[in-house]
Amino acid sequence: MRIEDAKILVALPDLGVDRLEDASLSEHTSLGIGGTTDLLLIKRHASIPQLVRMLDAAGYAFKFLGGGSNVLIRDGELPWVMLHLVKPDPEVRLEGNFTYVDAAADLGRTVTFCAKNNLGGMDGLIGVPGTVGGALRMNAGAYGIQIGTYVREVELYRAETRSLVTLRGAEIRFEYRHTSFAHDDIMLAVKLELPSKPFKEILDGIRICNEKRRSSQPLNQKSAGCIFKNPPGVSAGRMLDELGLKSFHVGDARVSDRHANFFVNAGNATAAQMLSLIDTVRERVRNSYGITLEEEVIIWK
Ligand code: EPU
Description:
Elements: H1 6-11, E1 17-24, E2 36-42, H2 48-58, E3 62-64, E4 71-73, E5 81-85, E6 92-95, E7 98-102, H3 107-116, H4 132-138, E8 141-142, E9 145-146, E10 151-158, E11 163-168, E12 174-175, E13 178-179, E14 186-193, H5 199-216, E15 222-226, H6 236-242, E16 249-250, E17 253-255, E18 262-265, H7 271-289, E19 298-300
Parallel strand pairs: 2-5, 3-5, 4-19
Antiparallel strand pairs: 1-2, 6-7, 7-14, 8-9, 10-11, 10-14, 12-13, 15-18, 16-17, 17-18
This protein binds uridine-diphosphate-2(N-acetylglucosaminyl) butyric acid.
């Protein structure tokens, strides 16, 4: 969707917003898939309410894109403008065991920065791609660790009330790959409380997780991580593997031959191919196991 409203175009610089015209979102997602639209890069959180008011008034639909590492975006010209928060400098600020992190900060870099300052807890999250905001929204987890455990406060933009809101950790429910945030809440910043731990010990934990990840996940291929959530007590990847689905593909959308719950873009996969692969695989699992897999990846179609 292209912004043509002159009032908005004139106001953007004052709001601290850069516009990338007709951006291809395939360049902004880890899957390398996604259609085209105007991408608005927001440098100041405080501008969001006014920006959204203007988009609303002019009738432009919009969505917020985080790190692009857990999303499957449809092909073609998109029916929404895409908003994206630009990383501030510094992304992370420490005060004792409290860590204040901007939602646009890279999750891996944040874990490393905290580790270097002898703050642990999030070691298992080191290889999870994407931003801190994306991790928060999904309650990202790996190797027995979930980010929600450490959250003490979240600043967000609440689309429903069109306002900036601060929530205490106790007001938010963090479950397996699910949180009580509204689907259109936009994460802006978080306060974490992390346990003290010597850097060397954290580093040992990080090395072990990295090694496990490297040996079991297709890290050098374009993917959005795991496509399906694990049903209670079962590994979706193992089920797909048992069904012989590794390397099964629709065009260039392919089930990884390394970890069957990772679907990779092996060339020029389209969203339509990826969606067809997801549906076909889900159907196969339903027929064989009587389980309906739920997507872990966010789908915008
Ligand atoms: N397995 C297979 N074949 C496969 C994949 C897995 O047999 O193709 C077996 C493994 O050998 C293992 C079991 O299934 O015995 C579980 O596999 P793994 O340890 O890889 O864990 P997972 O349940 O498949 C989850 C998360 C990952 C996270 C890992 C490590 C979900 C959907 N996935 O995977 O998260 O990195 O544990 O903690 O919860 C993600 O969220 O995108 C993601 C990749």
